[in-house]
Amino acid sequence: MIIGRIKKRFQERASEWFCAAVTLSFGATLLHPSETFTSPAYRAFEWPGEFWTGVIVAAVGFTWLIGLIVNGARQKVTSTIRMVCAFMGALVFGMLGIGFLGAYFINGVLSTGVGHYLLDSVLVLYTLYHIAADKRENG
Questions:
Q1: pLDDT tens per residue across span 105-124
Q2: DSSP per residue over the chain, as a string?
Q3: What is the pLDDT of residues 53-107, one digit of tens each?
Q4: Which of 36, 39, 94, 97 is the most buried (most CB within 10 A)?
Q5: For residue 3, how many other CB atoms are within 10 A of its CB?
C-alpha cells in the first residue's frame, strides 16, 4: 500500500525527484577531495568554502529526497520541507548559472554550465510552484 502511494507520487513528481537528486549529487561531488572551485564560476560559494558548500547542498538534497519519500507515503506531512529545499535548490542553481555566465565575461570561455544550471533553476522553480499548489490543496 505505502509503496504504491510512493510510486504514484513519484510519477506525479518526477521533475522534483530529479531536482532533489541533482542537488544531492552536486553537493556530494563537492565533498570529493579534488579541487572543484578552480573556476571563477564558483566565486559566489567561496565564503563557506568547497567542503561546507558541499555539506550544505548535499544536506538540502538529502532532506528533499527524504521529504519526497515521506510525502509519498503520507500526503500531508512534508510540503513545507519540500518548499524550503526547492527554494534553496533554485538559489544554488541560479547562482551557479550566473556564476558560469560571469566566468565567461572574465575569461572568455563559455561553459555548458550556463544553460545547464539556469535551466535547472527554472525546473526547480516549476517544482516549487507545484509544491505550493500541493500545499494549498492538502495542507
A1: 988 888 888 999 999 999 99
A2: -HHHHHHHHHHHTHHHHHHHHHHHHHHHHHTSSS--TTSGGGGGGTTTHHHHHHHHHHHHHHHHHHHHHHHHHSTTSSHHHHHHHHHHHHHHHHHHHHHHHHHHHHHS---THHHHHHHHHHHHHHHHHHHHHHHHHH-
A3: 999 999 999 999 998 888 765 666 678 888 999 999 999 999 999 999 988 998 8
A4: 97
A5: 9
Grid coordinates given for 52:
561546507
Closest CA to 118 of 17, 12, 13, 41: 41
Query: Model pTM?
Result: 0.83
